[in-house]
Amino acid sequence: MENGITPEVAFVGGGNMASALIGGLLKATGRVPATVLVVEPDDRQRARLALQFGVLALPAADAQLAAVPMVVWAVKPQAFAAAARPCAAYVAQALHLSVMAGIRTDALAAASGSARIVRAMPNTPALVGQGISGLFATPAVSADDRARVEQLLAPSGELLWVERERDLDAVTALSGSGPAYVYYFIEAMIQAAGEMGLGAEQGRRLALATFAGATALARDSRDSPAVLRERVTSKGGTTYAALMSLDRDAVKAAFVRALHAANVRARELGDEFGAGAAATAAVGQAAASAPETPVAGAAPATPITGAARGPVPRR
């Protein structure tokens, strides 16, 4: 607590995604920085967060978490179980928001002791306020809870609620991994530009402007992407030649198969991370209920590492 101000939201993990959410929240709401608490074991990252945002940054979880009504999980999914153990004693009454890929609500509930769980699947354009996040809430999450989550995530871009948790696997395949597909096609356009005699920077500008402009037109138009495509395509023209080449190579079918592959892998990762988190939570609960036995010469506990350094975990 700083100057009598109680933290209103706590981030476990202070990597790039957490930083983007913190910055957007402070800017959009005018919230006092001291109302944001971050648990970040890395010294340099913790110092950067405190300097950049003025938030309360802790090296490890402590009793200050007990008064925080909302906890945001922003560590790497493989580090979640270990990061959750020192927090569990303080966060059972809080609303929990996870921006981790693959950790399902049952694992989050088991590790935190709370039934009020919201899972979010953001993507990297959230770092510039142009992302989209898929959201799923457990039945215990109230309308007020949803509003608080939306307020926190709104500066990152668009929000889309889904009714079934398994739909987040499809969200992961489409938008979570989606920026990589866009970059893949941009790379191809830049390569082709070079092969046709243009410079790399010229190809880059043309590709980026084409994607941005076409996306803006599709967003603002009442017409479907198919109709918009047909309007650009004259039989026997250049666009027609390119699309016929794509069809001969079955590019659309291959791309659809790729999205299904991503969906299957998202489900597999959820199974893997869920099993690991549940097992660790069970061990932690058993250890918590057992009487403590002091061990002579035991080394002090080491803070858990694993805050998500990248925008979102690789998928």
Which secondary structure elements does this structure contain, and how are they paired or packed?
Elements: E1 9-12, H1 16-29, E2 36-39, H2 43-53, E3 56-58, E4 70-73, H3 80-84, E5 95-98, H4 105-112, E6 117-121, E7 131-137, H5 143-153, E8 157-161, H6 167-176, H7 178-195, H8 200-220, H9 225-232, H10 238-248, H11 251-289
Parallel strand pairs: 1-2, 1-4, 2-3, 4-5, 5-6, 7-8
Antiparallel strand pairs: 6-7
Helix pairs in contact: 4-11, 6-11, 7-8
CATH architecture: 3-Layer(aba) Sandwich
CATH H-tier superfamily:
NAD(P)-binding Rossmann-like Domain
User: How many structural domains?
Assistant: 1
CA-based gyration radius: 23 Å
Low-confidence stretches: 292-313
Total DSSP helices: 11
Distance between the termini: 37 Å
- Assigned CATH class: Alpha Beta
Q: Assign the CATH topology.
A: Rossmann fold
Strand fraction band?
5-15%
How many β strands by DSSP? Answer: 8
H and E order: EHEHEEHEHEEHEHHHHHH
Q: Structural class of the helices, strands and pairings?
A: alpha/beta
Helix percent reads 40-55%
Strand order of the largest sheet: 3-2-1-4-5-6-7-8
What's the story with the biggest beta sheet? Answer: 8 strands, mixed
